[in-house]
Amino acid sequence: MVEPTPAVPAAAAEPAARFTGFSLWYGTFQALYGVDLQVEAGRITSLIGPSGCGKSTLLRSVNRINERLGYVRTEGAVAVHGVDVYAAQNALVQVRKQVGMVFQRPNVLPLSIRDNVIFGHRLHSRGAGRTTRADEDAIVEGALRQVLLWDDVKDRLNRRAAGLSLEQQQKLCIARLLPVKPRLLLMDEPCSALDPKGTEAVEELIWELRGEYTILLVTHNMAQARRASESCVFMLLGKMIEHTPTDEMFVTPQRQETADYIEGRYG
Amino acid sequence: MSAPPPHPDTAALDRRDLAWYVDKLVAVLVFVGGVSAVVFIVGIFAFVTHEGWGFVSEHFSLRGFFGSIRWAPTSTSNPTYGALALIAGTASVTGLAMLVAVPFSLGAAIYIAEFATGRTREVLKVLVEMLAAIPSVVWGFIGLSVMNPLIIDVFNVPIGLCVLNSGLILGLMAAPIMTTIAEDALKAVPDTYREAAEALGATRWQVTRRVVLPAARQGLLAAVLLGVGRGFGETMAVLMASGHAINLPTSPFDSVRALTATIAAELGETAVGSTHYQALFALGIFLFVVTFVINLSADLIVRGIRKT
After folding, report:
1. ipTM rounded to 2 decimals
2. d(Cα A142, Cα A148) in Å, to the nearest integer?
């Protein structure tokens, strides 16, 4: 197996996320087999592979949201900026503060647009002095501006978020992560519920966020992986097959399985 | 055999086999079952109204019925029919019961729906449903033989059959059904909301308080209303635990008498068609209207959830 050569300078060598021999079981079904992977900080890394290859499972292991299912067992380690996510139960809230997640279907909370954006901030600003209404307004505006949604919704911040279009809802789902100041954003097929126009807009937004945030993006759309990511991980049947810069993977894949998948022989 | 059918399948389409007749028969049977609910409710309302109408049309006055505490239908010189004390009795017992039942049942529902997992949840759900199946006379018996001496001992009062006793008993009785309905309301909140909030770093309680409870509030209100309806209509346990004394309660240790208990205790000893008999049916009309309104609003609230 060929280790990817780090494309970032040694100063930023600490990976945003590091999987070490990570295996995962749903009950008796093994979904991941000893994954070793380093997600470089400040870049967009896409996870590709056929349905059921474990790419979503891998993504959902980073913030341990997998474990909501209750019959999940893991081996190995996942570290986010050097902190072992699976080490101690009480650190989970801190981990999730650093790791934001965007889901397949926009899952806005049944609250107003404003309350959606400020929700995470309110959870985590406990005890750190009261945030005034004006502070909150500034946070909401900043987050909505960053996801290019401010002009669309500034006059209806107190309306229900569920009334927005799917594209706007998905942008809102990204916006509500930002006030918590995460370092890593996990995106699980964030465009799969959107129409082509919405997909384009959200992809553009993801591209805008590059650099400031590390983004790990699951997609089954290879064109999207090619357009929207800098680094690419190919998975198959629960194993990580290849991890290379995106332009290399789509031109000169190193493994036969990758080449077959990219050429559409299966998947 | 003259002209053959145009296509062999056409005959097959028209065949009436056993399955066809069974289907028709079942359709008729379930239709009768469904319509009978309407027939019974209209029939009961018509019967109660008919029996009580004589009182309502001849002796009823708002002041005399709702404004007087004198319920003395058996007085030979001056029979009076003031229902205020009975209404206050039912209301005070139901009110106290809700003070007991709302925290208990909401707590139980939140625990079962949001915190418990796997076996614990399944076992608890079954137990709560079993609790709902305990006959009310058993609850009344507990009120009479366990709570009564306990209240006398603990609070040093002369009698333990009072608002407190029957309110506690009724609260425990209403809690299981309220728990079941409230849990259904919490379960109806889409799981994606919980997932979203948890991914943002919310603890289980933060998810519950900030997302699930607000989203389920209509269903929870419906659960409380159904509990109130249950309390209003309960007869046996209240009859046994309340002391059955006509009285406007001023403290939890006063004995009271409930509307339902009055009907149950007196109806067997009245002459059919007498004014007393009709007055009891007038109480029945009042109870029917109150519980109907409560249940209807609970139902409308639940329907409201499904639409949004």
Report:
1. 0.84
2. 10
